Amino acid sequence: MRQVFLGAIALMTAALAILALGSQVGVGIIFGLLLYFMGFNLLEATIPSWISKRAPVANKATAMGLNSSSQFFGAFVGGAMGGLLLSQPNLLAWGILAIIMGAALLIIIPISQPPYLSSTTVTIPKDINIQDWSRQMLAVDGVDELVVMAKEQVAYLKLDKTQLTDDSRQQLSSLVQSPLDI
Question: By the 8 A CB rule, do 113 and 1 touch?
């Protein structure tokens, strides 16, 4: 996923450079816009996926909402700034955008690959001490995160399936008092 993310930003940077240098030629603008929107569409699909993998279970909805709000705000600001930039000579306008995108690429390069975690929901067994149960759940190999909703008798888990063994799957099934399909 990291490679796709970085590749999309690099593609958009190259597309903006092509637009800066070749937007006066029909082929240049078509090729530049084609590359730009290929990168843009990759980012539009990758960013929400990345956020959902990185966000803590308890804050996932907030993180996804902030992403959506940022997209709409970006569309507004981008449209206004784009109008201002396009009143400038093409080389300057597209060149500024290429420099900004290149700077973003340099800032983003150090970001690490998000872990591949699976989410699942389990029903909390009745008549148990939830604090003890939670500690036991978190002690199982492969359980990365646990959010307990005591009133609803539900727990949300993030699991690292590469660390789950047959023993840890049996432990989880025993703790939730029903077989788990993980």
Answer: yes
